[in-house]
Amino acid sequence: MNLGYFISFEGIDGAGKSTHIDRFCSLMKSRFPNREVVVTREPGGTELGEQLRSLLLNAPMNIETEALLMFAARREHIAQVIEPALTAGKIVISDRFTDASFAYQGGGRGLSLDKLNDLERWVQGQPDGTLLEPNLTILFDLPGEVAEERRSKARAPDKFEKLDLNFFEKVRQEYLRRAKENPNRFHLVDATQTPETIWDGLERLELRI
Ligand code: TMP
Fold first, then answer.
1. What's the gap in Å between 154 CA and the centre of ligand 1?
2. Which residue's alpha carbon is nearest to atom 13 within ligand 1?
3. Which has fewest Cβ within 10 Å: 23, 81, 175, 191?
4. What is the extent of the structural domain holding 54?
5. Structural domain includes residue 30
6. What is the tens place of the pLDDT at every residue in 66-114?
7. Ligand 1 atom at minimum distance from 98 CA
8. What is the pTM of this model?
9. Is residue 184 part of a domain?
């Protein structure tokens, strides 16, 4: 039984989500002192997942192999980290989850959404027929050009960060399509705002935990 609360952070590379995660974690700890907070990430979050992350972010591979490895890492992450934490009533905050696969492998790479839906059902299907999904997804939305400009000032780019503007615009559009389809789950953040303004908005977020 899921007694916890699952939050994912999403957005195209350069949208600034990672800047806010640690602070958001501290906010959750102070707001819900009787709950443990687990911060994790995808791809990754387990020993095997981190090994897969290193392959996924560096090695060239077929698009379908990429999607399968993302979901393999996710299966391990759910089994080892997410499900046990939620069953124990913890708050789980993940830097990316399945929306990233739909946005990057589906929107960006062009993999069929049917195949992604099949993988999602396989990896996140629950005994009662529902899917394990975040209760809340905070989507940092930003035009591709602004994100590209921000990325150019950051560290050496990985395999995804090297992709062009057209790829990131398609990723962004798929994120926005999913947000529109799931308005109760998604909270959209205008990531063109200053970090302070974004933080003010996150602090005021009402959570039904
Ligand atoms: P990060 O740098 O934000 O941690 O994300 C790692 C990269 O992996 C990022 O470029 C997005 C990409 N990614 C996918 O393509 N599909 C996925 O399912 C996930 C979780 C991440």
1. 16
2. 100
3. 23
4. 5-203
5. yes
6. 999 999 999 999 999 999 999 999 999 999 999 999 999 999 999 999 9
7. 18
8. 0.97
9. yes
Please check whether residue 122 lies inside any domain of the structure: yes
DSSP string, 115-138: HHHHHHHHHHB-TTS-B---SEEE
* Rounded Cα–Cα distance for residues 166 and 42 (Å): 23
CA distance 147 to 196: 18
- Are 144 and 169 contacting, i.e. CB atoms less than 8 angstroms apart? yes
Regarding the beta carbon of 157 and ligand 1, being less than 6 Å apart is answered: no
Going from the Cα of 50 to the center of ligand 1, the distance in angstroms, rounded, reads: 12
**Domain count for the chain:** 1
**Which residue's alpha carbon is at the smallest distance from atom 2 of ligand 1?**
13
Give the separation between CA 166 and CA 144, rounded to whole angstroms.
8
Residue 209 pLDDT exceeds 90: no
209 inside domain: no
**Most ligand 1 atoms within 8 A of CB, residue of 62, 71, 97, 104 to mutate:** 104
Say if strands 136-141 and 37-41 run parallel, antiparallel, or are unpaired. unpaired
Could you tell me which residues come within 8 angstroms of residue 24 by beta carbon, excluding any fewer than 6 positions away?
A: 9, 93, 202
Residue 9 β-bridge partners: 95, 138
